Amino acid sequence: MTSTRTSPVRRLAAALLTTVLLATGCGLNNGGSVPLPVSPGPAGTVPELEGVRITVGGKDFTEGVIASYLVEFLLAAAGMEVSDMSSLAGSNSFRQALVTGQVDIGMEYTGTAWMSYLGNSEPIRDPQGQWEAVRDADLAEHDLRWLPPTTVDNTYSFAMNRATAQETGVRTFSDYAELVHTDPQSAVTCMETEFSVRRDGWPGLAEAYGFEAAAVPTPIMQPGIIYQATSVGRECRFGEVYTTDGRVKGLDLVVLEDDQRFFPVYNLATVVRGEVLDAYPQIEDVLAPLVDLLTNEVMVEMNMRVDVDGEDPALVARDFLEQEGLVSVD
């Protein structure tokens, strides 16, 4: 997820990326190589993949970069010649690169694809149902193959510091709605501009939980400022956050439970071009361990190591795979 969700209008306005396909190989050769060396894990390389070129793409925010590196390292350890096109500027750039074939594979969020790329106005709040709907639509429209999703769900929520949690007793959005009913001025909630007007953001949240949005003071801030201000608790008693952002844990924020499941599901899953997967179906088996290993808790920890501790995202991703026995480091 980027710091803002990409709306359909912005998607249509995005500039198309230049498509320059090579005659051989399954990807472009205009990216760099994997950022750090890796060697095969106990399973060794995959003979059918040895020497095959593939381009991995991703988005330019912490979780997007880490996700790209996880895919890159696993494919490289399997024997593929990986070209790195992680850190593409925003969701639209990554999506367009994938659709046009400039990128062969990467990780994406189900909710982003469903609402921003495929143009649907209403989310499907059942995670499996959302993934299946995206899988079927992208297969039919673009021959993009969605592999089984992880349980990572980088969706919206509100957070508060420990003192506010103790003082108000708020733990769920239903509790938050009750606080708004009784004392709206004490529910000062900081948010981004886009969230404040999105149907799957502030207006829809107020409708779903039955409170008056206009009664709540809602300072508009940039994401980085929201996290810091919420941790202090003066300007922002509550703040809009993303559930797997490392700053949530790093700043010891308490995240509200979406007890009525209002927010869309943003499960992280691998997406690969159909012709690539048809030619090299072994790719799915190589990446399959990520489905069970990647959880919100795991992703928060990796994000925190980058955003709070200042570590290199490539090193964080490689460490994780090495600890899980999926790659080795000489």
Structure description:
By secondary structure, the chain is of the alpha+beta class. It has two domains: 8-153 and 265-328, D-Maltodextrin-Binding Protein, domain 2 (3-Layer(aba) Sandwich); 156-255, 3-Layer(aba) Sandwich (D-Maltodextrin-Binding Protein, domain 2). It has helices at residues 8-13, 62-77, 91-100, 110-117, 127-142, 162-168, 173-182, 193-197, 202-209, 223-232, 246-250, 274-279, 282-287, 289-293, 296-307, 313-323, and strands at 39-40, 53-59, 81-88, 105-109, 144-146, 156-160, 189-190, 238-242, 254-255, 268-273, 327-328. The strands form four sheets. The protein has a four-stranded mixed sheet. Strands 4-10-5 form a three-stranded antiparallel sheet. Strand 2, helix 2 and strand 3 form a beta-alpha-beta unit. The longest helix is centred in the first third of the chain and has 16 residues, at 62-77. One of its GO terms (cellular component) is ATP-binding cassette (ABC) transporter complex. Pfam families: OpuAC (PF04069). Residues 53-323 form the ABC-type glycine betaine transport system substrate-binding domain. Keywords: Signal.
